[in-house]
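Extended Data, panel c. Modelled sequence:
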Amino acid sequence: MTQSDLPIDVKLMTAATHALAVVFAVLCLGALGTWAVRHPVWSVKAISVQGDVAHQNVVTFRAQLATQMKNSLSASFLTVDLQQVKRMFESVPWVRSAVVQREFPNRLRVTLQEHEAVAWWGVSGSGQLVSRLGEVFEASPDDSDGMPELFGPPEQSARVWTLYQLISAELARLELGLARLELTERGSWRAELDNGARMELGRGSPEELLARTQRFTATLSQLTERYAGAVQSVDLRYPNGYALRMRGVTTVTEDPTNPTQKTR
């Protein structure tokens, strides 16, 4: 008797038996796979950390991550969420990015990249720093001596850092240090030198602002030779020149009969 000659009830019973056998096999394989994955041999035994770790104290690092690591590593080596571990490490101060990889059979390797602080964001001691990539991050530097202050809308931090480098390099030719650079909400730039002198740079592209600064540095030596006072403030917002105020120097003839007239 051929398969096609079998009664319909026998055919249905045969199909059901095959289906049950397939389901049973799948369940057995699933159970076996779950057992294998959860077997202690696959539990994460260690995490190796490498890369930029200049600001990471091992004891403090472990203390900061203790609870999170316990929860993350409760999973096996095969099922641990690498993205969760990545976020865990990136939540630590100074850590800019983390790359997490599995190392057979039961280790994780984490490669860290730290921020490199170049300036304060806001005022000194604010707890916010600017990295060499122009990113704002929160941390406490080991040595903040000589770091300038940058400020502006947070999304413009890279732009502020880029302009600082241009202006600072130009002022350094005259041995002048740039202590602070700020982008106001209205889009105007102002700066402060390390001797306390204030600079109004106005608005414009980096090229325009640099050109104004170069016009100032090109003629400043002539003025300092003529006038002994130190620069108090400079306004570079004029199209063909700049306004300069120097300590102890006046641009008007003093009149002793005029008590309201004062020397700048």
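The first strand starts at residue 46 and ends at 51. This feature is highlighted in the accompanying rendering.
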